[in-house]
Design brief:
This protein has 112 residues and is an alpha/beta fold. It is built from 4 helices and 5 strands, in the order E-E-H-E-H-E-H-E-H. The protein has a 5-stranded mixed beta sheet. Helix 1 links the parallel strand 2 and strand 3. Helix 1 packs parallel to helix 2. The model has no long low-confidence stretch (mean pLDDT 93).
Length: 112
């Protein structure tokens, strides 16, 4: 899993690239945890280059979404590929998550 990040207007824009499964979810979890320790509470995960998400990846997303929400933060997802979006639909998490079609819409949602 490759992770790149830019920060704009106190929003961490995290681009993920690769499979989001049991082998890679620890990398994402560690990255986000470090950013939270640094005081970041607003995240957008750009999943445009994530062709596959397993239950381990779903768990990481859900845990951080809840943790951030409890600390007055937020986690949004953007640019989900159709098969990844389908996993969120099947798991029942699509309506529990803030999912956007593009990064700009997701980032703007923090100001709404």
């Amino acid at each position: 899993m490759n992770i790149t990040e830019t920060t704009q207007d106190n929003v961490s824009r995290v681009e993920l690239e690769g499979r989001f499964d049991a082998n890679t979810c620890g990398t994402v979890e560690q990255f986000i945890r470090e950013k939270i320790k640094e005081g970041m509470l607003q995240f957008v995960l750009n999943m445009e280059k994530v062709p596959f998400i397993a239950s381990a990846g779903l768990r990481v997303v859900l845990v951080f979404a809840r943790e951030l929400q409890m600390n007055k933060g937020n986690l949004c997802l953007a640019n989900l590929q159709p098969n990844v979006l389908r996993v969120f639909e099947i798991s029942g998490l699509k309506n529990a998550m803030r999912i956007f079609d593009d990064m700009e819409s997701a980032a703007r949602s923090f100001n709404d």
